[in-house]
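Continuing the batch. This is chain 6 of the set; chains 1 through 5 are on the previous pages. Same settings as before, nothing changed between runs. Recording input and output for traceability.
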Amino acid sequence: MSPATTLKRRVKMREIAHLAGVGPATVDRVLNNRKHVSVTTRQRVMQAKQALETGAQIVTSARPWRLKVFLPDNAGPSTEFLAACFQEFGSKGNATIECVFTKKMEAALLSRKLRACAGQGIDAVAFQALEDPLVHDAVAALAAHDIPALGLISGLVSANLIGLIGIDNRAAGRTAGYLMGRFTKQAGTVAVISGGQHYRAHEEREIGFRSCLQQNFPAATVVGTYCGYDDIEQTYEQTLRVIEAQNNLIGIYNVGAGNEGLIRALKKTGVTDEIITIGHNLSARTKQYLLEGSMDIVMHQNMRRAASQAVTSMIAHLENRPFVADILPVEVITRENISGITFG
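Output for chain 6:
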């Protein structure tokens, strides 16, 4: 059993009611998943039950927990959807959530915004990390002020982070490499379009992709990385560049955002039927690309689940409750299994 499910003893309903400050009838309704119980009351009852079972100490707050989430601006529809999901979970566990967009790829700006949380009464922070010494230092500064920080989608190797919510990015890259090799089945060149060198998640995807192709499909030669910086126009320009430079291009893997620019370049040069394309994150745009055949595979992570786990992780940490976040599954979406699939 995981730490989140290990039980020390069986507890009685009246014990839960006493600790939660409600009546036994309310506890009965919560435990049997009946209606007419508020989200806050239901949360309080389940916290009391878990605390009694595990011996944990419940930390109460005189006000709702203040959580702050930092996401990169203009990073595509998936990031915008993730922000909307945080608002959806804003009432979960007696917390208020402020979701802030910050200029992407600007480590100094992100660092300043993280540090500023120490003077704003923020209880916990989640952020899409940039791999930069300034960001590492800002996370350490938050820890010195007892403000827990959680990595979101892309993290850092830091003892000061309380965890990371996201997929196994190296596994996602290896899966993309395996599918690329199986789809192409021929000698040729494959290009990687990166979002830049600031996201550990992107580095891990590229490492996994290259490793799998080299190991299992040596006939496919991975050429140098082209940086699109998670930007539509720059990804468009880089895709045109790689198409012009490579005479025997058989595949393109985009590890980050900017898929609109990638597909626009493929259509302009008339090679959508000749090049296997793999990208990340299902959205209204990438769904259309799959349906029309201009993109072959989308590697997806459930953003609604990411937001839910992030909120639960931060609140559990603040309340000294055990919680182990799941690694989000890597979902492989094609035009043949897209029916019924949601962006969440």
